[in-house]
Amino acid sequence: MEEKEKFDINNLVRENVKGLQPYSSARDEFKETSSGYMVFLDANENPFENGINRYPDPQQHSLKAILAERRSVKVENLLLGNGSDEVLDLIFRAFCEPGIDNIITLPPTYGMYKVLSGINAIENREVLLSPDFGLNVSEILEAVDVNSKIIFICSPNNPTGNSFDENAILEILVKFNGLVVIDEAYIDFSQRESWLKRRVEFPNLIVIQTLSKAYGMAGIRLGICCASPEIISILNKIKPPYNVNELTQQRAREQVLKEGLLQTEVTEILNQKRALFKALNEVDYVLEIHPSDANFILIRVDDANKRYQQLLKKGIVVRNRSSQPLCDNTLRLTVGTSKENVRLINTLKEIN
Ligand SMILES: *Cc1c(COP(=O)(O)O)cnc(C)c1O
Asked: What is the pLDDT of residues 75-124, one digit of tens each?
């Protein structure tokens, strides 16, 4: 690779996005709908109060303040989305020119990067992980050309479960002059530190987290994007104004503020994961149990399609990942409650 130039986010933004002004909504101009003094006749809302008759805060100030405090980042480092899937889509649309730019993904990994590259007409350059699911750093850097805008790194990785080597990620962050998106959907289960701690060192780093996994709120759809204020303000230009609805903002605030809940549930899930590992060892057609730094376990079995169907007949739904590269005959098992895991293990032994 050539000598790295100084990173300048303006070299990566799409031309049409550079000139955009964010849509200014009624609720951007005047926020305090709850003060008794003001009368709000600016947004064509129904005036009869029912808790949700007003448009939600487009910048989610109170929720962001809580999340920023929990993560030791500033509010200006945060953008929230309708799940991380929306955040990922915003990143594509802000930085990748359809038909011209490309991204780099590292299969086997989360399927949405590829789906979004297809939707946005962006070439997806795939660089496989090594057979032990590590990063092939030199191959990744070789795949880069002048139109490579983003490298997506999912760590802990879905579906393999492992976290990637810190120095390997570091080398990519340092040598690649585009954006590095680290998807930390499973970070709350991980033994590793979040890359958020080192965000200020890397102007090209975007960290994505979610309330869908450890926080137990997949149903409300809330994704978190953490990056430099420059990147955040670019994403804000194209964000739909009311992308995070009022009920989501309310429930997220309540749930995140519950003292100790996250830790208690994560600890229990990790205990259950250990128990599951032990029990899986005793199932003779389970040929490999991949190490997991997340809340799921990828196992290799004798015949994944057969075992998948057998489990389904017994009312247990797991994920067959066999179609993914390097994942022949694998099943991905989410760690459930103690009761659910006992049923899984008993069934696995029964169908032997
Ligand atoms: C589950 C998951 C997400 C979560 O997406 P949401 O849209 O926030 O629910 C993101 N990335 C990965 C790798 C995941 O496995």
From this structure: 999 999 999 999 999 999 999 999 999 999 999 999 999 999 999 999 99
CATH tag, 9-22+61-257: 3.40.640.10
Residues 6+ apart with CB under 8 A from 2: none
Q: Report d(CA 37, CA 49) in Å as an integer.
A: 15
Every domain of the chain and the residues it spans: 9-22+61-257, 260-350
Ligand 1 binding site (Cβ under 6 Å of any ligand atom)? 83-85, 110, 154, 158, 183, 185, 210, 212-213, 218, 223
Task: Determine the distance separating the centroid of ligand 1 and the alpha carbon of 189, expressed in angstroms.
Answer: 14
Structure tokens at 269: 């899930």
Relative to the CA of 109, which ligand 1 atom is closest? Answer: 13
| pTM (two decimals) | 0.96
Give backbone dihedrals phi and psi of 275, rounded to 5 degrees, phi first. -65, -40
Report CA(250)–ligand 1 centroid distance (Å). 21
Determine the distance separating the centroid of ligand 1 and the alpha carbon of 85, expressed in angstroms.
7
Residue nearest to atom 14 of ligand 1 (CA): 185
Angle between helix 61-71 and helix 246-257 axes, rounded to 10 deg: 30
**Shortest-distance atom of ligand 1 to CA 82:** 7
User: What tens digit of pLDDT does each residue of 201-234 get?
Assistant: 999 999 999 999 999 999 999 999 999 999 999 9
Give the right CATH number for 260-350 from 3.90.1150.10, 3.40.190.10, 3.40.50.1580, 1.20.1270.10.
3.90.1150.10
Would you state the structure tokens that stand for residue 98, as one six-digit string?
């359809």
